[in-house]
Amino acid sequence: QKGGYRFFMEKEIYEQSDVITETMMGRVVNSHIEFEEIESEFLQEIKAIKICACGTSYHAGLSGAYLIEKLARIPVSCEIASEFRYKDPVLHKDTLFIVISQSGETADTLEALKMAKSAGLKTLAICNVDNSSIVRLADRTILTRAGIEKGVASTKAFTTQVMVLWMLALYFSQLTNTLDENSRAKEIEALLHTPHALKVDENLHERIRRLSKRYLHGHGFFFIGRDIFFPLALEGALKLKEISYLHAEGYPAGEMKHGPIALADPELFTIALMPKNLLYDKIKSNVEELSARDSTICAISSQEFELADDFVRIHTWDHYMLEYYEMAVVLQLLAMEIAIRLGNDVDMPRNLAKSVTVE
Ligand code: M6R
């Protein structure tokens, strides 16, 4: 069943390149995005978007918020479902309510969806399981087509959720006319390259396996990134936490100097997401500050970074989303290799269930 892989998580990491192609199938047509699941009238009068989800799906949602605002210029907010439910949210009927869930059964996300529906909002689910409770309730659904995900630590569900959101951002941009032909063509070209960025390079995997032995102790990890690499940093930290049981935080790199940098010493591991195509000089100076305070730095980038104690080189891509996807694989592999060295059950980490159907 594991097809020669040590864990389902490993198999699912390796499957990402193929399932992302499934996610795009029939939805990229002549350099345009089409969703047969939604008609443009459904989106008429929509002035804003609210995304709601839990855990990894929330991190996908945050990534989607950056993409939709960048590409379609529609204001987006993204909230954790268990917070949203109890805060007496202000809901306007011209807001599209999007829920994201791998299982389609997460109790808090389902309840948030019910609230939005009863407030009269149009609702859209991004989900991996057809006929799940969330799919049955939402007005419209876009399936992620990742296939069954067995590992408790979500991997391929995450990358396909982000793909749907990226396509949705482009779809909205067609309606709002916010991208010129040239920019649209570049986006589509990058989108179609995603399976390459997600393909696991055996040498890269081996490099991560070898360096993982340096990261088995210490007093904590900071995963840092900027812009859309901030939610990816959150996801990297969650992945590590849930299967290695080591303390990890995801942080916006520019916020480190507002407090957390006080923790910096050689036992503080900084995993720095340093994309060439997005705010490289800004993140570089944030990492330099941490290095000057003696934090141990593991840099993930296509650009040589001389201050890194460890350096994971990714391919040179010309779009930040391709860097995002290859880095997502690096973070998944890093968490998995650390957890394996620590002797943990990667597929069934302690205290966790695949689907959280209680609030
Ligand atoms: O099925 P859902 O996407 O609604 O699940 C949400 C979270 O419970 C889930 O993403 C969880 O955080 C994963 N274990 C993360 O790997």
Written overview of the protein:
With 359 residues, the chain is α/β, with parallel strands linked by helices. Helix content is 43%, strand content 16%. The strands form three sheets. It has a five-stranded parallel sheet with strand order 4-3-5-6-7, with helices on both faces. A five-stranded parallel sheet has the order 9-8-10-11-12, sandwiched between helices. Strand 5, helix 4 and strand 6 form a beta-alpha-beta unit. Helix 1 packs parallel to helix 6, helix 8 crosses helix 11 and helix 9 packs parallel to helix 11. The longest helix has 22 residues. The radius of gyration is 20 Å and the shape is globular. It starts with 7 loop residues before the first helix and ends in an 18-residue tail after the last helix. Bound molecules: 5-amino-5-deoxy-1-O-phosphono-D-mannitol (M6R). 5-amino-5-deoxy-1-O-phosphono-D-mannitol binds next to helix 2 and helix 9. Homodimer. One of its GO terms (biological process) is carbohydrate metabolic process. This is Glutamine--fructose-6-phosphate aminotransferase [isomerizing].
